[in-house]
Structure formats: C-alpha cells, structure tokens
Amino acid sequence: xxxxxxxxxxxxxxxxxxxxxxxxxxxxxxxxxxSLGRKFLYAGRGGLNLTHVEPFDAFLSRYGAARxxxxxxxxxxxxxAVRAFTEGLGVxxxxxxxxxxxxxxxxxxxxLRAWLRRLGDAGVRFAPRHRWIGFDAGGLVxxxxxxRVEVAPDAIVLALGGGSWPHLGSDGAWMPILxxxxxxxxxxxxxxxxxxxxxxxxxxxxxxxxxxxPVVAEFEGIRRRGEFVATASGIEGGLVYAxxxxxxxxxxxxxxxxxxxxxxxxxEASRLAGDLSRPQGRHSLTDHIRRTTGLTGVKAALLRELxxxxxxxxxxxxxxxxxxxxxxxxxxxxxxxxxxxxxxxAFEALDPAFMLRGQPGVFACGEMLDWEAPTGGYLLTACLxxxxxxxxxxxxxxxxxxxxxxx
Length: 407
Ligand SMILES: Cc1cc2nc3c(=O)[nH]c(=O)nc-3n(C[C@H](O)[C@H](O)[C@H](O)COP(=O)(O)OP(=O)(O)OC[C@H]3O[C@@H](n4cnc5c(N)ncnc54)[C@H](O)[C@@H]3O)c2cc1C
Prior knowledge:
Elements: E1 3-7, H1 11-22, E2 26-30, H2 38-43, E3 51-52, H3 56-61, H4 67-76, H5 79-88, E4 93-95, E5 100-103, H6 109-121, E6 125-127, E7 131-136, E8 139-144, E9 147-151, E10 155-158, H7 174-180, E11 185-191, E12 195-196, H8 201-207, E13 210-219, E14 222-230, E15 234-236, H9 238-242, H10 244-254, E16 257-262, H11 269-276, H12 285-293, H13 297-307, H14 315-323, E17 325-329, E18 331-332, E19 340-345, E20 362-364, H15 378-406
Parallel strand pairs: 1-2, 1-10, 2-6, 10-20
Antiparallel strand pairs: 3-5, 4-5, 7-8, 8-9, 11-19, 12-15, 12-18, 13-14, 13-16, 14-15, 16-17
Helix pairs in contact: 1-15, 4-15, 11-14
Bound molecules: flavin-adenine dinucleotide.
Flavin-adenine dinucleotide is lined by residues 7-13, 30-33, 36, 38-40, 42-43, 46, 48-49, 130-132, 159-161, 164-165, 169-171, 173-174, 339-340, 366-367, 377, 379-380, 383.
C-alpha cells in the first residue's frame, strides 16, 4: 500500500488527507503544533464564515488574478459543497443576511472534532509536534521532541498555510526550504489587514478601539459601506479588509495611499452644506457641527483630526469633507497580524494537478499557494477545494505510478 505524507493539519491538509484515505492509501498528517487545525479553531472565534452563497461567477471573481488557476477546484468543490460537507459532519449551517454562511453554533470546535474523528476512523494517522525542516534524498526531514525523523513516502502534500498569526502554526518558514528546492515563490505579504494612519496622540488615546459606523469608504473607484475600528495607530475591521489589497499595493508603489471616507452616507452633500451654513451663533464649531449634522464622537473627531485647520471657512467645503474625508494610510499592518497571506508558491511552479513541476509526487494546496481573497468565506472555501483537488490528484498519480511499475 502506498504511503502518503500530508504536511500541515489545517483545512487544506485535512481535506487532502480525507480524499487520499478514501482511496485506501496509508496516510500520515504531520504538523509542527501539539494539535491540529489551530488557525481554523481560531477563525471560529469570529463566527467561522465558511463560504458565501452569491452567484458563482461573482464568487469566482473574488479570487482576482488567481481566478483561472483556482476555478477547476472551486467548480468541483464550491459553496454548495462546503455547506454539504459541513452538514455531513453533523454541523448545521445558516446563511446570514449578507450571503455569508456560518455554522449555527458560530464556532469551529464541534466541526473540527467531528472531522478529526472521521479521519481517524478512516485510518489517517496524525503526527503532531513534527516540524518539517526540509527534503532529504527522496524523503522528508522533521524536527521532533525526540530528535530528527526521516520518512520516505510515495507522495507528499504540502499544506503548510501562509505566514499570518504564526503562533497558531503557519509561520511561512517553508519559503526558504522551497526556494532551495528551486520552487518559484512570491514573497508573503499581509492580506485582509489593517493599516497605520499616524493618529495624533490625543485621537489615539481617546478613540483606540472605537468602531466607526456606518461609513462608506472609497479607494480608486471601489466603494464599500460598512464599519471599521480605529486602533491606537490606524484602522482595521471588515470595511478596511475589503479594500486592503489595492491599498497595500498602492502603498508599496507610492509610499502611501489615500482612502476617502463618507462619514454621513445617508445625507446629501448639498443638504449638508445648507444645514452647515445656518448661523453658528454663540456655539463652538464642534457644537455647531453636532447640531446641524448630528456628527458626534469618533466621527466628529475624525473630521477634526483629518479635516485641517479652517474647517468652517466655507460650509460647502466642510460638507465636502464630511462626504469625502481623505485618510492617508502609511503602511499595512505586519503579516503576523493579518487575517490571511498573499504570495506563496507561484501557480507557474505547479502543473494543473497541483503537483510541483520538477518534483514528481510533491503536491501543494491551501493558503501557501499564491492567491488571495477578501473575508467572506472565500479563504476557507479555496483551502478546502484545493486540498481536495490535491488529494484527488495524488490518488490519480499513485495509480499511474503503480501501473507504470507493473509494465
Ligand atoms: C483570526 C482569523 C480569522 C479567520 N476567519 C476566517 C473566516 O471566518 N473564514 C475564512 O474563510 N477564513 C478565515 N480565516 C482564514 C483561514 O483560517 C485560513 O485561510 C485557513 O486556515 C488556511 O488553511 P490552510 O490549511 O491552508 O493553512 P493553516 O490553517 O494555516 O494550516 C497550516 C498547518 O501547517 C502547519 N505547519 C506550518 N509549518 C509547518 C512545518 N514547518 N512543519 C509542520 N507543520 C507546519 C501549521 O501548524 C498548521 O496547522 C481566518 C484567519 C484568522 C487568522
């Protein structure tokens, strides 16, 4: 019976393992952590957004430049399949108002427990505390609490994740290993992350941790409505993550990027200007803005922080600022703090079967591949889909290898 090693016990690795075990192969999932699926478990703290039920073309478009490379895997295992898979583990799901799909319990632990049990029942062996440190002639080398371990499997699936939240397991340390093996990669970069905005001390001290809502944010023609959170040094949260890829790329090219905020998305600029031009009387500027527009708290503070000195020089100017307040972003948050990772193994380094070109029998899947997507369940769906696709291809490759050996 062929022996298969999966390195990485996150959603992608477990999905691959399940397919390979179903074909009757001997399979071991190695992971450097004491237990598997830690990032998946942590994702459950935010409710575990499993997938999204928007029309499939729109769904595919979320993967941007990687859309073509991922399409076959996502066609084979898309949002419907993710829901069926989850329900098959005894975990009920529901569709939220925005089309996002969650487990009813809004956490990952029951799902992970059921999945690991099912994999164990299917004969999958788990080898925690095995840190993969490189290839050896024909095999793999692990660092373990009992010292160096070498194995020589018939096929290998790499599913080591990206580089964010490294204390949960995926630390990107595989990049130089693959570099030495001649595999083309793109540098790991943060995706779905916050940004540094260089707040004044006064603003940071008063408003760090405060949600700003509702607002519309606009960057280079992309407009999104929602909310974000002011942090001690900048901004984070769903609305920011939705625009984070183009903002990150603009900062990399130009050194900064300007996001425009509409602080009162339900008010028209012309009405606002009219309201603001009412006599200020004895009221302070802050009071006048509050009385005429309703802007208070963090939104009013943002206007003062970013609006410049002569805010009320002209009511039309002030109304314009409220509707299009420029927020200059200076740097993305570091990779360690990002929800996910862009960059990784280049698709050119893989054949359509997710096998590394020039490394027969070595497959790769999940977040370690060079794709990115917004939050909304797109990350887990592509990890599960590419994991399953890699698993299927391992089975097909082993079958071909066996028939070649017989000839
Ligand atoms: C806070 C947070 C919330 C999230 N919420 C969501 C969400 O709601 N919806 C969504 O779709 N996505 C979400 N994600 C993203 C999602 O969790 C990841 O995209 C997904 O877990 C990636 O799966 P993976 O199997 O490719 O990698 P991982 O889950 O990172 O698994 C990789 C595994 O490889 C192991 N490993 C790494 N290096 C080595 C080594 N050298 N040797 C041995 N083992 C190694 C790691 O220990 C890890 O267990 C969230 C992420 C974070 C951080």
